[in-house]
Amino acid sequence: PVTAGSIVVPYGHVIANEKWRGSEVAQRLQGKVRLIFEDGLGLVDFHLSNRTCILLISEADLVAGDEFKRRLVRFRNASSLRGIVIVEKTQISDQYYFGVQKFVVLELGMVLLPVANQGEASQLIIQLVSFCVREQTRPGVANPFVLRPRSRPAEPALLRALQRIPALGSAKALLLLQRFGSVQSLCNAGSSELQQVLGQSAAQQVYSF
Amino acid sequence: VPGGPSPSLCILADSREISSGPGVLSCLRAVHGLRVQICSLGSSDYIVSNRLAVDRLLQSELQSPGNRNRLGQRLQRLQGIFERICVVVETDRVRPGETSRFSQRTQYYDGVLSALVQAGIRILFSSCQEETAALLKDLALLEHRKDAAIQVPTEPEGHRRDILNFYLSIPNLSYAAALNLCHSFGSVTAVANSSVPALAAGARLSRARAEDLHRFLRHRFEPPALP
């Protein structure tokens, strides 16, 4: 059974698959986040928000073979949720990690994060949840890696660009911009028009450029 | 070689990687047979396709809060330039006899990972420089399959070199896009007079970025705006 993501996660809560009740992850999460157990989550282990969920792959899953791959593919095909795969990367399962990463990140295009044990997994989930919450309240603001669009004046960049043309320093570049206004009109200027601003040899160099 | 990289597969590497990642570079060339062009990229460590930039980060860099601002600025700048960004988190080399300094996973580290995930930045983990090279090759292959590979000559000479330098000075234009412009258009004038769709096709840019480029080329200079 695959649930295709109609789960509504209450604000600041985590919905956990019933099978994790009593596990180390669940115990460590309790008290830090508001945890709700639910039956019938299907392939998903934890829902962090309405659109983000976690699939947990244990050391044993990795060693046991390809069953976890089938599970991930089924999830990928059935759900439009953003799936974060957390995998137990231990001394034993380490050798499989490279292949798993290639499969999950490059082939399936999902997020894969390694942890050493269930304790680390719970710590990571707590951070992920807090980011989900922050994202819902103030989108993008709290995240240092999200590009905040800001408009910079183009003038300094224009001046720098023109100075890359051979024969032009800052003074001549400024004169040209004042006379012609934009890169486009400068490009379409005739050599005699250029000569009105620059000396003959510089005008010729700019024109042939 | 069935399934192997095609001979045209090309990666641009920043010149700083000569000192910080020599193992990555030599492995890319010798083991995987990729064409690696060293350039002064400035923005990212590697450019793998027309739209994908890869930054190689050591795990210790992600672990220390002191790097937070610098890393944030760098990745934000990359997002201004590239459609897709990937970071490869490489395990630091441990000298013989030295135990790993970062056996304890910190809350801060998990926070950084969460922020990267939330920002839509792809994360790969590597245990050494050789593995990083293999990941770069896989990424290049994947982008090649999606028809985004860099397929123009990467070393223009003479006059074309000057023109490339001019394109490189345009804000938020990647090195790959600048190379494409050099290759697809006969002159700067041809670029300046092109429509947005023509720029998008010639430079292999998205519509939005082609619009930015178009706007820049036609921006009317206002002297008072200069500092």
From TrEMBL, chain A:
Protein name: FAP24 protein
InterPro entries for this protein: FAAP24, PND, RuvA_2-like
Gene Ontology BP term (one): interstrand cross-link repair
GO annotations of cellular component type: Fanconi anaemia nuclear complex
Gene source species: Regulus satrapa (Golden-crowned kinglet)
GO molecular function: chromatin binding
SUPFAM superfamilies referenced in this protein's UniProt entry, alphabetically: RuvA domain 2-like
Domain Fanconi anemia core complex-associated protein 24 pseudonuclease, chain residue ranges per copy: 8-130
